[in-house]
What does this fold into?
Amino acid sequence: MNVLMISPGYPAEMASFTRGLAQSGASVIGLGDQPAGALPAAARDALAHYVQVGSLASEDHVVATVAELARQVRIDQLQCLWEPYMVLAARLREGLGLPGLTVAQTLPFRDKEQMKQLLDAAGVRTPRHHAARTVAGVWAAAEQTGYPLIVKPVDGAGSADTYRADSAAELDAILPMVRHVPQVSVEEFIDGEEFTYDTICADGQVLVENICQYHPRPLATKMHEWISPITMALRDLDDPGLQGGRELGAAVLAVLGFRDGFTHMEWYRKADGEVVFGEIGARPPGARTVDVMNYATDADLFTAWAQAVTAGRIFARVERRYNAGSVFKRARGAGRITGYEGLDKLLAEYREHVAALELLPVGAPRRDWRATTVSDGMVIVRHRELAKAMEIAQRFAAELHLYAG
Ligand SMILES: Nc1ncnc2c1ncn2[C@@H]1O[C@H](COP(=O)(O)OP(=O)(O)O)[C@@H](O)[C@H]1O
Ligand SMILES: [Mg+2]
It folds into this structure.
């Protein structure tokens, strides 16, 4: 089977999915805007052929390039797991007559208003919401939504340009900061805990299910640099507190007609137990969460995804063995990393529970913590018992310090 993979080497996780495709027996043709020499080794080794385009954003050019390519080599399937190019990928599939999400099926995964309208019509609980394109529109939407509310782009990512307003005065202060956003969603603020619901599907069946809990909620993580965010993949999905979320997740996939591939949904659980839909993407979670899922299961879910989309099934059983959590670290100070504090003590106590440790080396320039979730370093810890896994993750969050200067 010949699979055309859009952007096979960027973002970094794409290289692992490209490798997974090759490992499941596909012949993988890559198409991206990275120079071939800049592809990560895992992607380069897995590709049978690579086509570089000037920019993936030049849609018409990409469409023409792919049409030309399809005249030279049979293309059986087209995959794209990178959010900004999902619609382009759907357009390319339609042009080549390939199976998979169409443009019309992809848009509800990209446009958070369309997404919620479809779910509302099917009776799924979403936050009350109204779209707005103008300042007057935001005020009108706020009037209908009430406070506290959230203002966010209809196609945002990583909590960018997302704000909470508890009053008209706070909304007034936010408006200048979202002026550049063409269309926003004004939503009822849902107070509660925040989870993911991630799947790998084939033929409309859920083959792998995953739930992570975010500590704290992503918006808080985005506002305060001192926070070390934790994403904890939960071992026991049969926990009674998660059943509402699983049912919500299954309902959402059915309403949106998702059939094959990875999905990443977010949902909220209120103190009274009510579950509320957050958002969904027709792609894997980012921020190294697939690695976290791999450490929770001792599986290779990059390859499992590839098997699901190319063969319709996953060859090895995926068992949930651990609670596994990532902890992202942000250094104190600006400039280059000068040192760590607390690491030796934590490793002396917990080394056997540390599955991955990737901190920027001393001397490396700090990363922009607002732009990349991974920030200046990541630790993945795991333990069979959730309370213990959380305790270890929270110790790394609180007691491991990176310094820059
Ligand atoms: N209606 C809402 N109620 C409460 N919090 C929200 C709401 N909408 C968004 N948030 C907060 O903002 C974060 C980012 O919003 P989200 O819709 O997930 O967009 P994205 O992750 O694509 O930027 C969420 O994870 C959550 O913490
Ligand atoms: Mg989100």
Residues 127, 150, 152, 156-160, 162, 187-190, 194, 217-219, 266, 278-279 surround adenosine-5'-diphosphate (ligand 1) (CB under 6 Å). Residues 108 and 381 are 35 Å apart (CA to CA). The first strand starts at residue 2 and ends at 6. Residues 128-188 form a domain with the Dna Ligase; domain 1 fold (CATH 3.30.1490.20).
